[in-house]
Amino acid sequence: MSYTVSDRLLIIVTNILGNLSLLAFLVFMFMGSLDVIRLKIGEVEALLLNSFLSIAFFIQHSGMVRKSFKRRSTPLIRENYSGVVFSIASSLLLLLLMVFWQKSNFMIASAHSDLRWLLRLIFGLALLGFLWGARSLGSLDTFGTKRMRRNVEGKTTKPTRLIIRGPYLWIRHPLYFFCIVMIWACPDLTADRLLFNVMWTIWIIVGIILEERDLVSQFGPDYIRYQSDVPMLIPTRAPLSRK
Question: CA–CA separation, 90 vs 218, rounded Å?
């Protein structure tokens, strides 16, 4: 089998939107609101809009990633396209959130001097930790295009294996851990940033709980054993010995 023009275009669009949304989100976590579009609304209305944008992303992202949604959507979305459809939808909603997020003028706290630089250092270390965790997963299909390529080329998709190496020896969800650290490492805590920090931290924790159920269903006793040996999110014990 060979790629059609629509397949190639879909892969290009997916990669562009995915990388653009991730870059915008990274800048947002580091700098705060991008302040792209400033609407003429009050503080309360702005926070409500920010909350709505976040909840819309949470529902889409957490809903589409569940196995139950994939089963229901199979008649509409072919399995080899499900990854890129999910990626495009998530990227568009994340970009929408970044563009319309309203910056608050109310400053709750702001770090200065050495503390500010310390928070920047923590952010940088957390970003390196996130990249370390992603690298430890091996061939990570970030935007769902690799599976699509395999199907188009007639190659079978290899079964997903339980990866336990790198930061996964310390905690079960290092990517989420480092993401939470980056979220809270912003030195300027405005009202909108506090809202973002709290909402997204809660969503990540809820997402972990839901993902744990899927992982137990997928890997069975191996993951249950992993749960008993390694903490979920906070590294509170010595790392798991390599086998």
Answer: 24
Q: pLDDT 10s digit of each residue in the chain, 243 long?
A: 556 777 788 888 899 999 999 999 999 999 999 999 999 999 999 999 999 999 999 999 888 877 666 666 666 666 677 788 889 999 999 999 999 999 999 999 999 999 999 999 999 999 999 999 998 987 667 777 777 776 666 566 666 778 889 999 999 999 999 999 999 999 999 999 999 999 999 999 999 999 999 899 889 999 999 999 999 999 888 788 765
Residue 235 forms part of a structural domain: no
Its domain, for residue 123, covers 5-229
Looking at the domain assignment, is residue 159 inside a domain? yes
Three-state DSSP at 181 gives helix
In a domain? residue 242:
no
Q: How many domains does the chain have?
A: 1
Nearest CA-CA partner of 149 in 84, 87, 67, 90:
84
- pTM over 0.85, yes/no: yes
67 within some domain: yes
